[in-house]
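agent> Task received from the user: take the single chain below, predict its 3D structure, and emit structure tokens. No templates, no multimer pairing.
agent> Plan: (1) validate residues, (2) run structure prediction, (3) serialize to tokens, (4) report one or two observations.
agent> Step 1 OK, no nonstandard residues flagged.
tool_call: predict_structure(input=
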Amino acid sequence: MFVRITCINKDNGNHNNPNEAISHYGWVNEETGEHGDYNYKTEKKIVDGKTRYFYILDENGNKIKRWVNSDNGKDTTQDDPKAVINEDRGLFRINSGSFYDLMKRKKKEMENLEITSYDDMYNVDKNIAVAKIIYKEGGWKRWYGAAPELIK
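)
tool_result: status=success, residues=152
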């Protein structure tokens, strides 16, 4: 499936500010004509007027949270004093586990890019810089949502 981005929207409508985080984007699947909006913050996608959510729910309808250790990016439980929610941020959907792993393994490179916290992944330029590091290490297969033809 190939999707074309039709618009990119930023928080507060400040579209010319390069440091303002993208809040959502519009898209169209050119093969099927399906179109809609995807909102990063609420993790919901609107497809042809229908709302769809992108996370796993437990048997009671509660959103299941995954946790990673902020020292090494490895899966953990919420009881871990270094636990942070496992989530994705920004244009390239940088995963918190991947981010903390890079901060440990490539600390100097991240500091040279002035990347010091996971909140930096809301900055488009820094998000792209981290995506480039991840891509150099493992290509598109490092993104679970990548199209199969990109992962080959």
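agent> Step 4: summary for the user.
The chain has two domains: 3-53, 67-139.
agent> Done.
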